[in-house]
Each structure stands twice: as structure tokens, then as C-alpha cells.
Amino acid sequence: MEKKIFNKSRFYTPLLLAVMLTIGSVTFANDRVTVPVPDTLDINNGSFESLKHESSGAGVYNEGSVNIKNTSFKNNSIEPDFPTEPTEISPYDYTVEGAAIANYGVMTIENTIFDNNISSALYRYISKNIMQPEEGFQQADFTMSLGYGGAISNHSNAVISDSIFTNNISAQKGGAIFNDENGTLEIVGSNEFSRNKAYSEYFAVNTYKVNNELIDGYDNDYNGFGGAVSNSGTLKVNGAKFTSNLAAIQGGAINSEGKTDGSGTGKLEVLNSTFKNNIAKSNHDIKRYDEINHKWEENHTIQGAGGAISTSSDTIIKDSTFIANEAGTHGGAIDFYGTNYFNSKLSIQNSTFNSNKSGQQGGAVNLSFEKFDDDMIIPAVEILSSEFKNNFAAQQGGAISTEKDTILALSDSTFDSNKAYTEYNLTLIKALTRCYYWHGLLQKGICKTITDIQHFENMKDKKYIRQIMSLRFLPPKLQEDILNGTQHTDLSLKKLLKMY
């Protein structure tokens, strides 16, 4: 059966909103459209706005065939009825995805706008150590957000053309679109993705038993893969623009994952596309108890790989441009983390990389391939006829960095003004030097109080002296990084004093 909707709008009368209308086997409930097998539905000039659903597809849930054209999806959201108190039910038992559309059938989308759709729901989860040891870790109380595909989750076949995705948000994967392992997705024509994000805070209170006393540590982390698109299946992108998208962990614009099941899934092809000002970056702060050495540890790091693209898939990137993308650690534009198990491959052809930046290695491209079986053949990473200019890495590989078992086949490419060097933060080094010098004044008896140090140094601000002297209690590894110039590039004295 085939149905058509023209000029569909959410602005029905209250009476119609309160009931479910059924036409054939296509249902409409509070403007949510459900398309079952084997029906076909055409939606033209429609509007889906401010709709909510508890699990997936607040606007359209498709298991049949749906064709969407000249339509807008705005401010739709997934809002599950989660327990208000912490639960031991695994978060993986819930579905939170596709605030605008959930597709399990065949779908085409043309000339459609997706704006400010959100798949992000707060969830509290308790994980207990079933051993309950006399000393050490007892349980973790997690506060996290769940959600895949801020606008669309695709589990089957979909083609999207000439559409715009802006300001969509997911908590975990695919700020705008999530393409799962069974999905085949083509993004063709003049599609634009801007200011979408896969980004959410993840906080765990970790309880330890130490000397027969329960003491809490913490893990303050972030989640988010594929600021615009996250792919676990087959994805082809041709002619798209990705601008100012954000992911917390991997793939500021696109994250693509390889698979180990031999099914051939985990494929990515990017053609004739532009990536500009996309970012993969977030903080990770942790305090934990070292059960072997019986001491507390604190670490404060920056993470994020693949400012534009992070991939372990079978990947082809051709005739594309990467400008001013940034990663917290690896691959300012592209991070490739391949293994034999994932059937990972990478070919970059006739592409341009300009002014990309990473906090550690691979200002433009970071390449890592890990061989788990000595008998397996490692496929070479190909970079052909490409241009690298003005890219920067804080530690190594201003343009390209390779690690582990990577084999790189590089040909007919040009490199200009790429840089990799350690940026010493003299302000931080000076602060640490003063810290130990002032402590030395007290230990040697030259000064007896902070007020004495204030007079000795002829300084006005006693509070500043106290703050600087507290830097002595920084984790030794962080102090070492500051002195070696290997601390994260955006760590300032102001941030440091706030942390301690």
C-alpha cells in the first residue's frame, strides 16, 4: 500500500492530538509517523517539530519504505522514562536513538532540514564488585547520558541528498546521524553538516575500601564519537561540507568503526568533501586508588583523536579538503587506528591538508596499525598526490605520524611549513620554580611564614604565594610534563591553580 503526505504539519487541533488516527496500516500518533512493512509513504513539504518519544524516531519510525522531501525536523527529542534512582540495569538494555527518524527499512531524504534534534538522556547506573574484597574497589556509581543519532538512526538502507544538519546532539555516537552495523548509508549531493556534536559528560564515583574505611574516588570523563556522523556499517559521502562539528573522543565530523565478524561491514568512502574547523577533544580527570602500591593517584589529561575523521574501517578518502581541524592528541584531521581483525585499510588520494592541529602527534594525519597475528599480511596505507601545508603537532609528525606496525606508501605528495615541536610554557615553568624555591626558604629557615616570604620577595599578594606553593602537590607526572614541555598545549596557570 502506498500513502502520500503533503504539507504535513504538527499544528492539529487538541482533539486530534489526543487520539491516534489510522489510515490503512500507516499510523499517526501525536504527529509521529509509523510505516510498517510493506507500506510505502511519501512525505513532501512536511514539518515535524518539538515531538518526543521514549526510545526512537519521534518524527518518523520506518520499517517499510519512506521518501521524505522538502521537509523540516526541528527540536525533536528522545526522552525515556528512566528510573530516578540509580539502578543495576545495564545502560545497554535501553534504546535511545534517532530523535527525528529511526529507519529500519528503505529511506530516501531530499532537500530536508534537521535542526536541534537531541538524543541524549541522563541515566544513573551502579556497578558492584561481586567479590567485595577486604580492601580495594567496591562499586562505581555512574551518571551518564545515553543516545545515538541526534537526528537520524539508520539500521538498513538510506540515501540522503541536498539536506542540512545543524545543531543536532547525541550523547554517544553520531551527533546528526548514526549508521549501525546493518546500515548502508549514502550521503550525496550538497549536504551540509554544521555545529552538530556527539558530546556528553560521564561521571563515576568509585568507592574503595582502604584500611577498613570506605573512601570515594572519581572518574570525570566525556563520551562522544562522530560529531556529525558515526558509522559502524557502510557509509559513502560525496560532495558534503562538514563545519565546526564536535566530538568528545573520536571523529570531530565522522567516526567509522571496523568489524571483526568478516561480514564486510565497517566501510567508509569520502569523496569531494570539505572538512573545516571540526574538533575531537575533551578533558579526562580521574582520582583512583592504586591497589598494588596502596596509594591514591590523580591524573588530568586531554583526549580526542581525528579532528575531522577517525576510522578503523576499510577507508577511501579522495579529492577532499581538510582545513583547521583539531584533535586533542592524535590526528588533527585524520586518525587511522587499524588492525587485521577489523580488515582496516586506508587510501588517501588527491586531498589537501592545511592548518590542522593535534595536541600530540600527527598534525594532519596519524597512522597506527597493530598486527595481532604474525602470519597476517599488513596492508600498506596509501597517501597519493596530496598536499600538506601549515599543519602542527605538539610532539611529533607535523604532517604525518606513524606508529606500531604501520606501513606507509607515500607518493607524489608535497609538504610545506608543517611543524612538530615542544612548546615550553615558561609561565608554568616559572611557577613551579618559584614553588620549590619558596618551600626551600621555609625549609632552610630563611623565612618562617608566608608573610615572611611576602616581605622577602617584596610582593603585594600573599594569596598568590600560597597558591603557587600548592603546586608542590601536583602529580609528579604532570610536573615532569611541564618541565619537559610535553604538557597539553592549552594548560594555563589559571587552569592549573583551579584544579589544585
Describe the structure concisely.
With 500 residues, this protein is mainly β. Helices cover 11% and strands 44% of the residues. The longest helix is centred in the C-terminal third of the chain and has 18 residues, at 426-443.
Please tell me about this protein's structure.
With 500 residues, this protein is mainly β. It contains six helices and 53 strands. The strands form five sheets. A 13-stranded mixed sheet has the order 2-3-4-8-12-18-22-28-32-38-42-46-50, with no helix packed on it. It is globular and about 85 Å long. Residues 1-29 have low confidence and may be disordered.
Largest sheet: 13 strands, mixed
Strand order of the largest sheet: 2-3-4-8-12-18-22-28-32-38-42-46-50
Measured by DSSP, the beta-strand proportion falls in 35-45%
Work out the helicity level. Answer: 10-25%
| Unreliable residue runs | 1-29
Tell me the total number of β-strands: 53
Label the structural class.
mainly beta
Give the mean pLDDT.
88
